[in-house]
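**User:** My hope is that you can spare some time for a protein that puzzles me. I have put the entry right below:
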Amino acid sequence: MQKSRKTSTFSRWLFTFVLAASSVVTNIAKAEQTLAQTQGLVNDYVNLLSQEQYDALTQKLRAYEDSTGVQMGIVIEESHGGYGAFDRAMFIARGWSIGSAKDRSGVLIYVAIKDREFSIITSDNTQGKLPDGYVGILEQDYLVPNFRNKQYYECLS
């Protein structure tokens, strides 16, 4: 009887430990993304751009929005945190509501420097003006070569 009680206590302890450990692992795996506060149209969280480049990009994006009605945003982060560039970009675009809610016309260029990945997200009404085929050509002929050469401003301007 004594042995059975010890075995039962150990079994309960082991079960509790395994349950707690699996809960911790599950919570780590499902950790939610964090949404940084927007700095404006250009969000350089790793300081790749000089102040002059930052200001010039901001002016270009404002002028583009004024002339087309399409709001563009740029986000540069060190890493996408294991979510994938597309998923991280979608999270940011939705969280910040890139483009007006009324027109649903916005574009987000997302760059994860350390991961060497980027993604371009287009909202519903922008997809006709900027179809996937055209975005693919921009990426391969313009973005990728400039990123390889670490010409970040040239790539984004």
